[in-house]
């Protein structure tokens, strides 16, 4: 599907959804220091041909401006002529879309996801069990034990993107970058938000368990 064939209405809905999520996450303090990025896919999907709206790089995500988002293709290149730069981490979004076919991806830096990603960085995953919010990830098995992948935080974003296919766990809709933050995704904005909130709750519980000893 060509970008020009995607309806204006679908593009406007994607931008409105991102604006809404941006405002909610900003109110929780989930974009400190301009960190974090958000995206929503538009149009049809095939692994080599898809498009998504993504946050512009380096902007204050606690305010709304006409320059907050732009549309990019599966290679992370702008679909329209613009002076805006897509998120520096757009290639990670593109790789997650390519591998999962999901509909929305949210990335935030929080104290709890940073601390746990470092604590379990050498292990390669954050373990979690016995937390009701694991069901928020869509895992309803009794007393499920999960492992949330942790990837190295290379400066070269394309090097991180290359590691994603071998790191994904089929039932876990997220990955951590060590000492950096989490990417969570879902089939749409609602599901990606639920997954991100569940991950953050799980990280806080696991952190406090460790702190309690
Ligand atoms: C200022 S935080 C460092 C960059 C980062 O990790 C991030 O999430 C924000 O980068 P972007 O280019 O999407 O603004
Ligand atoms: Zn980041």
Automatic annotation (TrEMBL):
Its cofactor is Zn(2+). Its EC number is 4.2.1.109. InterPro entries: Aldolase_II/adducin_N, Aldolase_II/adducin_N_sf, MethylthioRu-1-P_deHdtase_MtnB. Signal peptide: none annotated. It holds the Pfam family Aldolase_II. SMART domains: Aldolase_II. The keyword Metal-binding applies. This is Methylthioribulose-1-phosphate dehydratase. The lineage of its organism: Bacteria, Bacillati, Bacillota, Bacilli, Bacillales.
